[in-house]
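To: structure subgroup
Subject: Chain for Friday's discussion

All,

I'm putting the inputs and outputs inline so they're searchable in the archive.
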Amino acid sequence: MSRRVLFAIVGLALMALSAYAEAQVNEEAFTVLRKKIMANGMVSFSGLRTVVLFENGVKVRGFQEQIYQKSPGKQRIAVVAPEGERGRLCVTNGQVQWQYFPKDSKAVRRELSTAAESRASRLAGLDRLRERMKIEYLGTETIAGRSAHVILVSAPLDIPIKKTWVDTQHYIPLKTQLFDSSGNVKSSAFYTAINFRPQYTAGMFDFELPPGCSVRTASQLPTRMSQRAAEKAAGFRAALPTYLPPGYSLLKDQIAVLEQGGKVILWVPFSNGADTFSIFQRLLGSPAPPRTKGQSLTWNVGNHSFVLVGNISVDQMKRVRDSLSF
């Protein structure tokens, strides 16, 4: 088979997959997802939520959270079980978010973007999702005693990415499942009880730093830009993988330029509409030793150093690494 014929076949296959994803976006499901974004931070409620994490389909960790949300934009999430994780806290007053880790006596403070900016970013992400994913409406089910729309987001070839159950009245997600590249559930978060007439106590959405607690201030998110603009600002070209896990694509207008220790870093993100991973790239000063740690992978090629961080398996990380092209 000639190369020209091969390229034509590949091109037609890619076009078919693109058309497949675009043609199978259910309008009712898409409308529900938009309403969910618009409701984020704008509905007051309290509830108990269970979160379960899996690896290769096997449960590895679980915990329960007590959640209070007050419109607009205030939220308190406290881990109440198991005993070893009790007391972990995330408090948001609408402008500032605090995360507290009592076991380590550490806290992280983060300035938040405005509600309008966050909403616009989420809506833009949903539009990108529509361009390449299959979005199905699966009817309604009951979660925590409430009726919920059931929506499944899949990559081409029907690889499940995310399944969500959205309250039919208030458009709050009552349950969410995320899947790995093999179609196994990797996380599940669901309410066991929820109350849309909550009771609050004074100071519930304020955070008082405990004595002796160390504080780290999270850096502001950098300005996002096109690949061409980011490469010009960084002074070097981005290396991009030729292999991506099913459903993932480059967020070509969401690339950023960072500076750390006097070194310029390109932050190149990829997403499947539900999860993301990023490749951080810089020119070498002192080479970092190649290593795999948790959900990150570090390596060097020529005079470049790379760190891949994200919610994909180590095997997928290595496939992405090995396909990197300059």
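Points worth raising on Friday:
The helical segments are 3-23, 27-39, 115-132, 227-234, 314-322.
Confidence is low (pLDDT under 50) at residues 1-23, 286-293.

D.
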